[in-house]
Amino acid sequence: MLQKTACFLVIGNEILSGRTQDANTRVLAQALNEQGIRLMEVRVIPDIEERIIRTVRDCSAAFDIVFTSGGIGPTHDDITAECVAKAMGAPLVRHEESFRLLEAALGADRFNAARQRMAYLPAGSTPILNTVSVAPGFSIGNVHVMAGVPSIFASMVAWLVPQLEKGAPLVSASWHAAGLKEGDFAADLATLQKNFPTIDLGSYPYHLPEGASGVALVAKGYDSETIGKAALALHDLIMAHGREPLSGEPAHKQTA
């Protein structure tokens, strides 16, 4: 089964300045893992028109699917919808259904010109719904534009991603061992990665609250049979270095 690839564009000066911490990448990645879509790249870009347009065009051509977050609200720096419309060669037009829903939800007295901007979508796009607010995201071509507010973003992801073409879900297997040191087995792990080129092998040091520390070894990929073979190899690697392999991730791990 051919795996779909995806890119996530996090748009916003507040992310780059450190004022706001991105909370949306993990939500999207986990949803895509379940859907069998591989998130290959995440880019954080500023609220600059030329940068947004160029990046959307580049990523739309390079990946099967592009997701964005941020910049679709009512303020002056919410320029994502306009920029994506230009990137995709479509005019920005009033989406009548979204306009009516927003007016009904906010009330005519509060539905001012600034809020009306949220009902303008690229021509030919379809709204992305959410259960938190009425203001829509939208899909146009292979680009899906969503809000930056984490609760709204999560709602949009929950509505949108299950509708996308499904691939083989991400499968993982892991072993961990107390007292294991990355420097001891790094060369052996590199050899294993060469033996299993179609999956990802990783090592993750951990420190538990009670003081125990060690390393978790993880195999991830989209072929369950290959993951099973790699998991056995990771088990044997730990044994070869004189440690007791325990299945799964360490409880209450704190990664280094």
Automatic annotation (TrEMBL):
InterPro entries, alphabetized: CinA, FLAD1_M, MoaB/Mog-like_dom_sf, MoaB/Mog_dom
PANTHER family in the record: NICOTINAMIDE-NUCLEOTIDE AMIDOHYDROLASE PNCC (PTHR13939), NMN AMIDOHYDROLASE-LIKE PROTEIN YFAY (PTHR13939:SF0)
Domain MoaB/Mog: 7-167
Membrane-crossing segments per the record: none
Gene from which this protein is expressed: cinA1
Record protein name field: Molybdenum cofactor biosynthesis protein
